[in-house]
Amino acid sequence: MNGNNPYAGLPGSTQAGKRADADVPELSPDQTRALRRDVTAIAARTREFLPSEYVVNGDVTQGISGPQATVAVRPPAGHPVSAGFTPDIDDVEGEYLIDPDEQAEVARGLAASAALQVKQAIQDSVTPTAR
Asked: In degrees rounded to 5, what are phi and psi of residue 20?
């Protein structure tokens, strides 16, 4: 059965459950800077949509499957929301690793999700003024 598993390992060189180093993509220093810039842009756009009580942060890490970017929002009430990216290095066009249109869409989605979390968290403690 291990022969059917992509993580079974290469005989003699890769342990079972581990990935070969050649299978894990790595970003060049310029690509890492570009990804950090894109994540920072998403976080900044998200902050524009939300009041200052919301905490917005972005991070770029090297995960087991390659580079990963995350933008997270901690609303003043409710659960945090986040968006994660695993950029496809081979499919990059231009100077952006995350397309500007996608950046704007993610920022709007994160802001809306964070606002919804607050609404759901306080819905029982607010009395409606009209019906």
From this structure: -70, 145
Q: Which fold has domain 25-122?
A: Double Stranded RNA Binding Domain (3.30.160)
| For the chain, domain boundaries | 25-122
Closest CA to 60 of 45, 40, 80, 46: 40
In whole angstroms, give the CA distance from residue 99 to residue 80.
24
27 pLDDT band, cuts 50/70/90, is confident
The angle, 0 to 180 degrees and rounded to 10, between the axes of the packed helices 100-122 and 29-49 is 40
Q: What is the pTM of this model?
A: 0.74
Six token digits for residue 112 = 């809306």
Summarize pLDDT for 78-98 with one digit per residue, the tens: 899 999 888 776 666 667 778
